Amino acid sequence: MEWARTGTVDPDALAIVPDWLRPVADIAATVTAEDLTRFVPPHGAGRHSAVLILFSDARDLLLIQRASTMRSHAGQPAFPGGALDEGDADATAAALREANEETGLDPSGVVPFAALPDLWVPVTDFVVTPVLGWWREPSPVWARDLAEVASVHRVPLDDLVDPVNRCRVHHPSGFIGPGFTVQGLLVWGFTAGLISGLLDRLGWAVPWDEGRVRSLTDDLVEESGA
Predict the structure, then answer these.
(1) Is residue 2 situated within a structural domain?
(2) How far apart are CA 154 and CA 160, in angstroms?
(3) Which of 22, 61, 154, 155 is buried deepest, with most CB atoms within 10 A?
């Protein structure tokens, strides 16, 4: 199966999103998978999944921390999301359903306006479609499914941009990637890479100390399945 190497934009949805989100849609329309990650889905790669990158007018992003009992990515901060089910019409439907199941998010208050190219998570062999949404009518969110979600966070974009909160994360395998320390969380891996890539391409990032490195413990990596 061939996966989408470029993003898509919904022109009807774009017509109603606030002006400050238009650059995000512009990025989705032009960015390629290779621009965001070295992990591009190979032909015939694994199961299709989706995550919701949800922006609110409070200028924050919705993140969850996965439960420590999860089989993969245990304890990791992440965007809401998961694998497509047979009943899901598409990646957008899956992202909204998973966000509802994990955080109680009311999908009727979300305007999905674009999707980034499909990306690959080699450790789980998931091909992930990042769905971009505007939280037009924010609803209460919480850790609805404690078997999967330990906590739910609305993280201000300003906190993600703040140089004090940025770092690089050293994986025991030797790989070093972007990281963020926000709200008591160490955001790393696929999620941090996506956030970092978007901040860079949107021109929102500011210089930070790239010599600041946090090391993951072997125990944490084993728990997360990464």
Answers:
(1) no
(2) 11
(3) 61
